[in-house]
């Protein structure tokens, strides 16, 4: 799958000037409220008409302002899951999910339909009306409706934002399974960093209507220059490891390229590959190997970049084996430690700096 977007549009004081390149897997659009995330995917879906630019999907032109091309929504073969599900209240679940197939030239077979119902766990809900469903059930039905339209692309506009934490944890595995089993490519809008850890193959950061950073999720988050864009609280790197063992004291050992990382016990099998988010503010730097510390997570690393951040802070990019980390330190600490690019350093992390929400099967 190949999606190319280059759009410019003005609505009042808001200006959208965004470029996006997306391929197979899950591309996450990340940004604060008002950054233009929904405006972007509404334009891709055909729900709004930009003033300038173009959109192509798999070499098909969906929109081109200069050439006067603007395919209607039902011809774009794009599934859309909204934040509030938007099910038809007068139809039951079976009728809702089949509604999306009405305009499909080659609908899914009965066997494929059954597979979608089974994957989403909505078989027992087929005769219910939306009013009798929980928030999580409604979103699973909305996802089923989108999938049964046989889309070439799936758009998801903050589909978990209206759910409480328990419901979010219930429905996230369905998106993960869809991604893992080769479902349609996803453009997933969120402002929740935990969802990026769980889903993102690629990441596009929007700010004030502009795409200010994009690439693989690991590359974007590990770049110290992007700390200002992500925000001090959310900035951090993604690393990949393999669950090595589960200890009797309640910790799980995760083998990284640079050593062992200990985290609160994970409910996954030994040998599982996991992706871990380490926040920059949870990384402490030491010029010598720490001794006698309570922290069990001490990794040898090398400084690869130093970027001035916000509030008199600096972002320090580190390589630890083949993984990358970020640390945030004060200007005083940088001066006192005389840190330089290429310098060897020790990165110290507490076990509780890696909560379960920061870890996802890869």
Structure explained in plain terms:
The protein is of the alpha+beta class and 362 residues long. It is 22% helix and 37% strand. The chain contains nine helices and 21 strands. It has helices at residues 37-45, 93-99, 110-120, 135-147, 165-180, 193-199, 217-222, 227-230, 331-337, and strands at residues 3-11, 14-22, 26-30, 52-57, 60-64, 69-70, 78-81, 153-157, 186-190, 202-207, 210-216, 236-246, 251-256, 259-264, 273-279, 284-286, 297-308, 313-320, 323-330, 344-349, 359-361. The strands form four sheets. The chain has a six-stranded mixed sheet with strand order 7-8-9-3-10-11, sandwiched between helices. Strands 2-1-4-5-6 form a five-stranded antiparallel sheet, covered by helices on one side. A five-stranded antiparallel sheet has the order 14-13-12-15-21. It is globular. The chain starts with a strand and ends with a strand. The mean pLDDT is 91.
């Amino acid at each position: 799958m190949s999606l190319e977007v280059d759009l410019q549009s003005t609505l009042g004081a808001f200006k959208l000037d965004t470029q996006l390149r997306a391929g197979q897997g899950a591309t996450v659009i990340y940004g604060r409220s008002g950054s233009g995330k929904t405006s972007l995917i509404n334009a891709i879906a055909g729900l709004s008409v930009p003033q300038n630019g173009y959109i192509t999907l798999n070499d098909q032109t969906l929109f081109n302002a200069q050439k006067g091309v603007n395919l209607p929504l039902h011809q774009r073969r794009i599934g859309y899951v909204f934040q509030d599900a938007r099910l038809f209240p007068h139809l039951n679940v079976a009728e809702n999910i089949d509604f999306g197939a009405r305009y499909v030239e080659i609908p899914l077979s009965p066997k494929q339909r059954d597979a979608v119902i089974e994957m989403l766990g909505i078989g027992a809900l087929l005769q219910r009306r939306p009013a009798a469903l929980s928030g999580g059930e409604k979103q699973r039905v909305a996802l089923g409706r989108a999938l049964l339209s046989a889309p070439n692309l799936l758009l998801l506009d903050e589909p978990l934002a209206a759910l409480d934490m328990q419901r979010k944890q219930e429905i996230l595995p369905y998106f993960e399974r869809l991604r893992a089993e080769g479902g349609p490519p996803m453009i997933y809008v969120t402002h929740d960093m935990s969802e990026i850890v769980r889903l993102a193959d690629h990441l596009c950061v929007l700010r004030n209507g502009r795409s200010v950073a994009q690439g693989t999720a690991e590359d974007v988050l590990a770049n110290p220059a992007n700390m200002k864009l992500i925000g001090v609280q959310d900035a951090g790197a993604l690393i990949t490891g393999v669950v090595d063992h589960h200890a009797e004291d309640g910790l799980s050992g995760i083998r990284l390229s640079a050593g062992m990382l200990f985290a609160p016990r994970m409910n996954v099998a030994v040998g599982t590959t996991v992706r871990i988010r380490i926040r920059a503010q949870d990384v402490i730097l030491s010029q010598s190997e720490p001794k006698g510390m309570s922290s069990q997570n001490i990794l040898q690393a090398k400084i690869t970049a130093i970027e001035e951040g916000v509030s008199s802070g600096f972002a320090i990019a580190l390589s630890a084996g083949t993984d990358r980390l970020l640390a945030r330190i004060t200007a005083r600490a940088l001066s006192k430690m005389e840190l330089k690019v290429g310098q060897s350093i020790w990165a110290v992390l507490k076990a509780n700096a890696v909560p379960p929400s920061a870890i996802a099967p890869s």
